[in-house]
Amino acid sequence: MGKLVAIYLKRCHRGPMDFQNRAELLKGTGIKGNADRGGRRQVTLLSNERWEDLMKQIGGDLGSDARRANLILSGIDLENSRGRVLRIGSCRLLIGGETRPCEQMEAVAPGLQRAMRERWGGGAYAEILTAGTVSIGDNVSWDTDTSV
After folding, report:
1. Residue 148 pLDDT grade (very low, low, confident, very high; cuts 50, 70, 90)
2. Residue 75 pLDDT > 80, yes or no?
3. Which residues touch 106 (CB under 8 Å, ≥6 apart)?
4. How many C-beta atoms lie closer than 10 Å to residue 112's C-beta?
5. Terminus-to-terminus CA distance in the chain, angstroms?
6. Residue range 43-58: average pLDDT?
7. What residues does each domain of the chain span?
8. CB atoms inside a 10 Å sphere around CB 9
9. Burial class (CB in 10 A: 0-12, 13-18, 19+), 38
10. 3-class DSSP assignment, residue 3
11. Stronger pLDDT, 68 or 4, i.e. the higher one
12. Which of 60, 41, 58, 61 lies closest to 123 in space, CA to CA?
């Protein structure tokens, strides 16, 4: 079982990421107060362990907020998880696919964008199936109920 270790909201498109202790996930929309909402990419997720591996690979020491993902997870491997249902607290999220790294990652650290292209290093994006509030420390696990 994993844990939710960080939550970030984006104030505006390409804007800074603000740390939060909790967030409200809205079905069909995304995270309340986040600039980028709607569509299939309602929430972005990142494995903290995968981020730490990337930092070792490029010789960096950036915090996970530099990735610009909404929810940072520990103990959950997101690689090849498309179509799986993830449970965070009482919320359920359908993984839509891999979040591909953009040029902003190269601006953050040389070599990061290229390194992130392997093994879903950029994390994943998801749609919210079951709404609710998530908080740092919430349990995270793959849901055995895959109904959407």
Report:
1. low
2. yes
3. 112, 113, 114
4. 23
5. 22
6. 95
7. 2-142
8. 19
9. exposed
10. strand
11. 4
12. 41
> Which of 31-35, 74-78, 104-108 shows the lowest per-residue confidence on average (mean pLDDT)?
104-108
Q: Alpha-carbon distance 63 to 84, whole Å?
A: 27
The model carries a pTM of 0.92
Which helix (H) or strand (E) segment holds residue 105: the answer is helix 103-108
Per CATH, the number for 2-142 is 2.40.33.20
Helix/strand/coil (H/E/C) assignment for every residue in 25-81: EECCCEECCCCCCCCCCCEEEEEHHHHHHHHHHHCCCCCHHHHCCCEEEECCCCCCC
Residue 13 pLDDT: 76
Report the alpha-carbon distance of residue 62 to residue 92 in Å, rounded. 29
The helix/strand/coil state of 98 is strand
Beta bridge partner(s), residue 139: 3
Query: 95-135, pLDDT tens digit by residue?
Result: 999 998 877 787 778 888 888 889 999 999 999 999 999 99
Strand 139-142 vs strand 85-88: parallel, antiparallel, or unpaired? antiparallel
How far are the Cα atoms of 66, 105, 118 from residue 101, in angstroms, in the given order?
12, 6, 10
